[in-house]
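ok so i was messing around last nite and threw this chain in just to see what happens. nothing serious, just curious
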Amino acid sequence: METTRRAVATGLASLGVAAAAPRESRIDPTNELVAPAERPRRIVSLNPCLDVILVHVADRSQIAALSHYSRDADSSSIAELARTFPITHATAEEIVALSPDMVLSGRHSAPATRSTLRRLGVRAELFGVPATIDQSLEQVRWMARLVHHPDRGEALARRIEAAIAAAAPPPGERPLSALVFQSNGFASAPGTLVDEMLTRTGFENAAARYGLKMTSNVPLERVLADPPDVLLAGVIRRDEPNWADRVVAHPALKSVAHRMHRAVFPRRLMNCGGPVLIETAQVLAQARQDARRRRT
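result:
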């Protein structure tokens, strides 16, 4: 605690600001919010999903640090690039030492850290988890305005829209049912971003027929009794298999293998929107095409 107080005091002095509360944006930014008058020069991102947007719309020189999660190749789509940037573990001491003029965080970020930023007077932008493609595109555009590169945000949004459109099924094609397993064995429920991506790429989310109202586990017995046309899950980790790995590798699934196509849906595509949706659309379209060929 004393270390934090000293860091805050040092940070206030180095930033030359009073301990005033900054403007913190709402969970879901809208066009009514006002971007900073001056171009931010030292941006710290504390969230891996915000990291991936930031590196696409900001100048490299504007990025003071990304979150440490973005260096994890298993869960991040920018792991290699992220290793070339400084990182933090979202502690107040680390952030203050970087003298940021803007911090980007998700709604699950540590309240203590946000409180420290308020005392420092650092502008904090708080983003929610987008539940739709439109919300994700708005986050892209809003972040681009925050960093004073709105043209990059618009160009990226158009690329995402084009990728999703290109992944759409042919007109009149009957949707295939699909179940998406996330890390720790959770299945993506209706009303999520993954659910909308399934719909846009020619699938029906099988989680709905299993009765899921929110993202949660689907018992193996339900999958065996009523298998989806396509099971989408990450690459099985033999060293430390999680619940989803054990389900996908379960011997009992061999009994329905002739009815269910197994497709790889990397973990790095399961958590974030923004530019990640480009690869997500491509992977889902390929899974649909492969499943169709198998059925013919």
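not much to say yet. The CA atoms of residues 66 and 87 lie 5 Å apart.
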